[in-house]
Amino acid sequence: MTLVGSAATVVLLRDSLAGPEVLLLERPRHTGSFAGAWVFPGGRVDQEDYAAASADANNDGAADGFGDEAHELAAARRAGVRETQEETGVLVPPESLVHVSCWIPPTEATKRLKTWFFLAPAPEQEIKLNEGELMDYAWLTPAEALRRHQEATMQLVTPTWVTLHLLLQDSTVAAAMERAASGKPETFQSRRLAASGGSQVIVWAGDAEYEQNALAAQATGRHRLTMNGLNWIYERS
Fold first, then answer.
1. Which pLDDT tens digit goes with each residue over 170-185?
2. In what order do the strands lie in the sheet with 200-203?
3. Coil, strand, or helix at residue 112?
4. Which positions fall inside the Nudix hydrolase domain (predicted)?
5. What pLDDT, on the 0 to 100 scale, is given for residue 223?
6. Do 69 and 154 lie in a common domain?
7. What letter would DSSP give residue 168?
C-alpha cells in the first residue's frame, strides 16, 4: 500500500535524578490509531501546515531553494508543535525541535504514514491532556518505559520502543540533544520478515536480509528488531 500522508512526533525530554525522562501519552484502548498504546505527542501533518511552511519560506526569502524534502520537514515541524499543544497544552518553541529520524511502515501496513521524529527539551509548563483523545500521561526514563513494556503494563509500538532504546545511552537532556544535533537523521524504512519460531522480525537498511537481491547473500550486517512476545531485542552491527 502506498503512503497516505505524513505525521510528526515530538519526543519531549526533561532531566531527573534518574536521568532523562520522556513524556508518554496513553491512547484510548478501544478506538483510534495505536489503541491502548503509549506514544509520544504528535499527529498528522495537515494542509495548513504545508501552507504555513511555504509562507515562512517566502517571508525568509528561501523559497527558491525550498525543495520537496525541506518543505515536508518544515511542515512536519509545524505539525509537531501544533499537535503537542493540542494534546498536552505544552507550547514547544519550533526552533528547539531537532529532527532525529523518519519512520516509514512496511508496505503491508493498512495505514502508511511517513512519520518525522523530533527531539526537544520540555518547557516547564503544566500538562493539560486533551481528554477526548488521551487517557493518561507519564514522565518516565527510557529504561523504565521499556521495563513496563516487557512486563506487559505499558504497550509500545515499534518506533516508540526503538527511540526509547536509543535514548538509553544519554545521561542528560543536554547530551541527548547534542547527540541528535550532531548526528544525521536516519530513515527507518521498515520491512517485515516472515515469522519464524514464534518471533516477528522487522529489518531496516544495513541488515543482511533487508535487500532482496543477489548482493544480499553476501551481506552479514544486522539492523533489526526481533519480537518474541514481549521480549524485544534491537540489533545493529
1. 999 999 999 999 999 9
2. 191-192, 200-203, 223-228, 231-236
3. coil
4. 3-163
5. 96
6. yes
7. T
- 169, 189, 209: which is the final residue of a domain? 189
The shares of helix, strand and coil residues in the chain, as percent rounded to the nearest 5, are 30, 30, 40
Q: In the chain, which stretches have pLDDT less than 70?
A: 1, 31-32, 58-67, 213-219
Residues 214 and 172 in one domain: no
Q: Are residues 92 and 20 in the same domain?
A: yes
Cα 159 to its chain centre, rounded Å, is 5
Q: What is the per-residue pLDDT for 213?
A: 55
Alpha carbon distance 217, 15 (integer Å): 45
Helices then strands, each counted (H, E), the chain: 5, 12
All three cell numbers of 231, joined, read 521480549
Residue 66 is predicted with a pLDDT of: 44
Closest Cα to residue 158, out of 166, 30, 215, 18? 166
Are 66 and 104 part of one and the same domain? yes
* pLDDT for the residue numbered 219: 62
Query: Which region, left, alpha or beta, applies to residue 114 given φ > 0 means left and ψ of -120 to 50 means alpha?
Result: beta
Q: Cell numbers of 213, please?
A: 537481491
DSSP-derived secondary structure letter, 54: H
Bridge partners (DSSP) listed for residue 116: 8, 102
Q: Tens digits of per-residue pLDDT, 98-114?
A: 999 999 999 988 889 99
The C-alpha atoms of residue 94 and residue 155 are separated, in whole angstroms, by: 29
Which residue in the block uniquely carries the three cell numbers 501552507? 51
- Structural domains counted in the chain: 2
Domain that holds residue 163: 5-189
Question: Which grid cell sits at 105?
Answer: 511502515
